Amino acid sequence: LAARTPAPPAAAAAAAWSRAMASASGLAPIIAPSMLSSDFADLAKEAQRMIDSGADWLHMDVMDGHFVPNITLGAPIVKALRKHTDAFLDCHCMVSEPGKWVKDFGEAGASQYTFHIEATD
Description:
CATH superfamily: Aldolase class I
CATH topology: TIM Barrel
Radius of gyration: 14 Å
Order of helices and strands: EHHEHEHE
Largest sheet: 4 strands, mixed
Strand content: 15-25%
Number of domains: 1
Helix content: 25-40%
CATH class: Alpha Beta
CATH architecture: Alpha-Beta Barrel
Shape: globular
Structural class: alpha/beta
Number of helices: 4
C-alpha cells in the first residue's frame, strides 16, 4: 500500500513526476538511489550528485528505531532537502503506526510515502 502526496508544483518537479509515472507504468526502469548512503553533512550536494548521475528518484529510507532497530531521517530532513531539489522524493517508511506520519511527510514535500502493511492494525 502506498499513500501518495502530490508532487511539488515547480515545473522541474512536474517533469520528474511525469518521468516517474512513465517509469512506474512499466515503460522504463526507475533509478532511485538511497540517500541513506549519503554524506549527511552535505545532503543537498549528495542529492544533486545523484540526480546528475542519472537518478530518477531519491529514495529516503525512514526508520524509527521501533519497527526496525535503526534510526534514520524523518520529515524534517525531507523538508530541508526539498528546499534544494525538485527531485521525486520516494519516502520508504519503516515505522510503527505509519498512518500518523503521512501528513507530516506530505507537508515536508515527500512525493511518495510507502510503508509496510504489517506496521498497521
